[in-house]
Amino acid sequence: MDENLKKIIPFALVYKKDIILNVVYNILYALFSTLSFIALIPMLDVLFKDAEKVIDKPVYTSFWDITSYANDYLYFYITKLTNESGPQYALLLVVAIIIVTFLLKNLFNYLGLNHLMLVKNGVLRDLRNKMFDKIISLPISYYSEKRKGDIMARMLGDVNEVRNSFFSILELIVKEPMTIIFTIGAMVFISFKLTLFVFIFIPISGFVISKIGKTLKAKSKKAQDENGQLISVVEETLGGLKVVKSYNAEGSFTEKFNFSIERLYQLTNSIGRKNNLSSPMSEFMGIVVIAILLWYGGNMVLVETFTDGSPILEGSKFIAYMGLAYNILTPAKSISKASYQVKTGLAAAERVFDVLEVENTITDKENAIVKTSFENHIKIENINFRYENENVLNSFSLEILKGKTVALVGQSGSGKSTIANLLTRFYDVQEGTIKIDGTDIKDMTLTSLRDLMGLVTQDSILFNDSIKNNILLGKPNATDEEIIEALKIANAYEFVKDLPNGIETNIGDAGGKLSGGQKQRLSIARAVLKNPPIMILDEATSALDTESEKFVQIALENMMQNRTSVVIAHRLSTIQKADKIVVMQKGEIVEQGTHDELLALSGTYSKLVMMQSFE
Fold first, then answer.
1. How many CA atoms within 13 Å lie on the side-chain side of 104?
2. What share of the chain is helix, strand, coil (3-state, %, to 5)?
3. Last residue of a domain, one of 356, 382, 398
4. Can you tell me where the transmembrane regions are (predicted)?
């Protein structure tokens, strides 16, 4: 059994009841599909005045004779009805039987499809939920290596492909095979000799179809990978549209998109050709066999006779037999089509499980501590950290006391933002420890660790929603009054109150309707509302103009009052009041002290200050 098939089974077993009912209704569909053709025999017999005369009422003997008992009883009733009321009433009876069998066949088909739909949609929902839980729980490091567009393609496109294609397997193993089995059973009952041709046809057809579909799974996976690439190009283009337009790079991105879509076009055409070939190929082979049956069976009706002169095969049975033979073609076509779809579904499932089975390296330890308060200090002790091969931090140690503001300064690449990433456990240190009140942060639950911290980043990350809902991320049950108070502390209420809908105003995609300074003040308000004991500000003002920086700086000072703050700063004007300034270079501390103490040293900090102009 295919590995991905084994992995999908637990998701399907949740809907065991619907699967069982689907199987039961499919079996009943297959049975009545066969009976609907067998019911043609008595109708044709009545029409051609060739109905078997059964005068004596048959007696039921055992279950194994039920077929001949049902047949005899039907002809007994036809004989009786013909003698008593005339042949038109017998014809009405057999026509009614045909209508009922076709009605039941289609009813069971509908019920089977209904339960299959519940399984498909249920598994689609569960897979998407599981996929979203996984992608939101994976560490930040995972997404520095992967394209977001490809992850989106896997979650939306590939999971949908699993739903559409994979569950064809229920038809592949139940509905269509049972239809073929029941049909062949009826055909053997009518004429064993003729049925031998059908047994020759099925394995030949299966062999040809499997040859055509051999490379389908690999090509389907390539097409799905290319689809992920395509979505990545679109996502990156829309995300950086201002840069694309300002550099007149539309042509370059269009070329990249066209190249990707051309590859997808070639792959989907190749897959489509093979998919399209399966149905006509199986139908043509079926028609060839039916042509042979018509010739050979026709001889049995017209030429070959028993010793008493009666034909070896009656005309009515031969017509019904041909209907049954044609009835095999539809499930044979469906099986070939479903086998192709399953291959596509398995390729999609492989891409889905590639993500679901990624090991999450940043998780809670067993029996992790839930820490609800911050009492004394944060201690960073001899940590080494590298993103790839080279250390970004070397034997780095620092103590941050409760209620104090510690600023990290230094040139780009000195490791300042890495400290923020490690404190919040977006990444884990390779050597050394980070402790809060003497407890290693790896021994704490991620939720309780991050509950102790508020983060304001250089890029104001806002969502396409109202101002209120963006700020509520910090405290989902906060009142409007608390939101407004947080906005006032963040120096943001002065512009929010003038908006058409106040805090209910939608701010657009990534806050696109607001200025940089306004977005940053909303980010600060979000952190203020959360009211954590430890605040981490990662270059919170570096992307702002001077006027916006003044507003944001006031907001930051309001927020940092009576709070432990780690400030990563590019603009040194924003951290002059810090209790301790730590100067970093190539992942090491070269100086630390207050603003005045460091200036007096005339060292690295003094040079950095000289390079920047103060207001």
1. 15
2. 65, 10, 25
3. 356
4. 27-48, 89-108, 180-209
Same domain, 267 and 373: no
Residues 405 and 348 in one domain: no
Q: Sign of the CA dihedral 566, 604, 584, 573?
A: positive
pTM, full prediction: 0.71
Measure Cα distances from 375 to 400, 407, 432 in Å.
12, 20, 22
Q: What is the pLDDT of residues 157-207, one digit of tens each?
A: 788 888 877 677 777 778 888 888 888 888 888 888 778 766 766 666 666
Tell the residue number behind the tokens 């809060």, with chain if given: 436
Q: Does one domain contain both 409 and 265?
A: no
Note down the domain range covering 399: 365-450+566-615
Closest by Cα among 428, 291, 429, 279 to 360: 428
49 phi-psi bin (left φ>0, alpha ψ -120 to 50, beta other) = left
- What is the three-class DSSP state of 72? helix
Rounded Cα–Cα distance for residues 168 and 335 (Å): 9
pLDDT confidence band for 542 (50 / 70 / 90) = low
In the chain, the largest separation of any two C-alpha atoms, in whole Å, equals 127
**Average pLDDT score over residue span 286-299:** 74
Quick one: 80 and 217 in the same domain?
A: yes
Say if residue 66 is in the same domain as residue 137.
Answer: yes
Q: Is residue 439 part of a domain?
A: yes
Under 8 Å CB-to-CB from 556, ≥6 apart: which residues?
Answer: 456, 524, 537, 540, 541, 567, 574
Same domain, yes or no, for 54 and 113? yes
Alpha-carbon Rg for the chain, nearest whole angstrom, is 38
Question: Could you give the angle at the alpha carbon of 96 between the alpha carbons of 90 and 99, nearest 5°?
Answer: 145
pLDDT tier at 209, thresholds 50, 70, 90: low
Phi and psi at residue 440, to the nearest 5°: -60, 130
Laid out side by side, the sheet with 439-440 consists of: 391-401, 377-386, 431-436, 439-440
Domain count for the chain, please give it.
2
Number of helices and strands (H, E) in the chain?
Answer: 24, 10
The answer to the question of residue 484 being in a domain is no
- Rounded to whole angstroms, the Cα distance separating 188 from 499 reads 81
- The position carrying tokens 């456990």 is 425
Q: Which of 430, 383, 344, 317 shows the shortest CA–CA distance to 169?
A: 344
Residues 351 and 369 both lie in one domain: no
Q: What is the pLDDT of residues 469-503, one digit of tens each?
A: 888 887 888 888 888 888 888 778 888 888 888 88
Residue 440 lies in a domain: yes
Q: At CB < 8 A and 24+ separation, what contacts does 504-513 make?
A: 504/466, 504/467, 504/468, 505/466, 505/467, 506/464, 506/465, 506/466, 507/462, 507/464, 507/465, 507/466, 507/467, 507/470, 508/464, 509/464, 510/461, 510/462, 510/463, 510/464, 511/460, 511/462, 511/463, 511/470
Query: Torsion angle of alpha carbons 120, 121, 124, 126, nearest 10°?
Result: -110
Which CATH number fits the domain that encloses residue 349? 1.20.1560.10
Domain boundary among 327, 356, 385: 356
Judge whether 30 lies within some domain.
yes
Residue 594 sits in a domain of what CATH number? 3.40.50.300
41-79 as b/e: b if 16+ CB within 10 A: bbbbbbeeeebeebeeebeeeeeeeeeebebbebbbbbb
- CA 71/CA 52 separation, integer angstroms: 10
